[in-house]
Amino acid sequence: MRHIRVISPPERTAAVLDILRSRPGVTHITLAPGGSIEPSGDVIGADVTREAAHRVLQGLEALGIPADGAVTVASLDTVLSAAADEAERAVPGDPSDAVVWEELTARTREESTLNVTFLAFLVLAVMLAAVGVVTNSPVTVVGAMVVGPEFGPLAAIAVALATRRPHFALRPSIALLVGFPVAMACTWIGAELALAADLYPEDVLASAAQVDFIYRVGPFSLIVALLAGAAGMISMVTAKSAALVGVFISVTTVPAAGYAVVAATVGDWHRALESTAQLGVNLVGIVVAGFLVLALRPAAWRDMREQVGL
């Protein structure tokens, strides 16, 4: 379930209560008149099932509550209440199939902003991948996959497409289009310095057989990207973080960027281009899979239609 707390201007409190009382799946409604100091207003709380959360939030947004007050949503891991059980039964569908679009949009937006932290993680991830290539170490490559922060922007693009709000894809697209070149440029500088210091030979790729999978583009490159992207989006929708870690170590995005840099450094432009193609295939595959997951889930499709006013 989700706990929704509303700070409402007093003149709209009755309308907020009407929304909460009229929606199935809402219970434990509380009211503290004048309970908020900044912004001033009444504090209203309610526990809402996942299946009902999106419609309740839509109603609160229609009242203009976010503009003049506030709406916060928190996840409830354990609820012991007969009223809560009744609220769950009052709403069709399974909680795991529900999509709280506002929550998903906020989460992906937070993880897809181009900032120092995002760039730092991406630079470190690509550098780790490059080290994994020159040392022929799949374990290091897997570590780079886990560190890479690129799934957040990819998921945000998929959500933007699913909700038919392409302008929401601008921020994550910028994060990727700026982040990867910057990370690869920083890695190239490090690779050149390492090569000049004779830390690895120019024919290093000839002995890197254990990481050849990174640059070899084939049908399974797209298949893995689609499967991982689907698993990742389901993980984000259902808040299953353990599954998301599995996604990170399945896709060849960051490793492909690191391999391309190493290949370019030693003058193997064929492998550099193949690695870049591998990067592109994985990025596109993850976005497509994420969009399909959101579009094909029955509850998600119903809510998506309401989200865009269809």
TrEMBL record:
Name of the protein in question: DUF389 domain-containing protein
The keyword DNA-binding is assigned to this record: no
Keywords for the protein's UniProt record, in alphabetical order: Membrane, Transmembrane, Transmembrane helix
Keyword Membrane: yes
Domain of life of the native organism: Bacteria
Organism: Tsukamurella pseudospumae
Transmembrane segments: 116-135, 141-162, 174-197, 217-237, 244-267, 279-296
